[in-house]
Amino acid sequence: MTDPLDYNELVRAFQQGDGKAFEAIYQECYQKVIWFCERRVQDKHIAEQLTQDTFQKVILEIETFKDFDKKNGFLAWLFRIAANTVTSYWRHESERRRVEQTALEKEEIQRPRFDRPEQVLLKEELGQIAFQGMPAHLKKCIVAHYWYGASYEQMMKMFNLSFFRVNFYMYEGRRIIRANLRGYYP
Asked: What is the pTM of this model?
């Protein structure tokens, strides 16, 4: 039987800059966090994104973790971050649906439909605009994830990248798409 993972030791190492310590935490906790998120949102893709957001917050906030004296202090902290991430998702989703419903009721927004030839061309043109100026390494991650459904773990293996790099590429790719499409969508 293997010894249980000493999260306190790994967290201390990560706080001191050891990236391998975070990789160990990520490998050990990823399935637990994705299961936690999926049980709350009932959608695998959303749960995967929320899990990535959770670990990104862990990376950003690891210096604030101080509960080394508690037996499961790190896991409690990690799942509190996951719970807050899910709560934030539902809050934003609820607001988005409310705004969308209000707009549709007032007939202020008509959703574009892409069933006529000129609309298909418009959709393709927006796709080209979205990727305009995006470096190839970012584009391959965005395409693999959104078009082919590759998970972050699959992209890590396919492109031989670390979790940090995949997460950063996805973040930067989405940022470029949002910037490029600003003005085309409300």
From this structure: 0.55
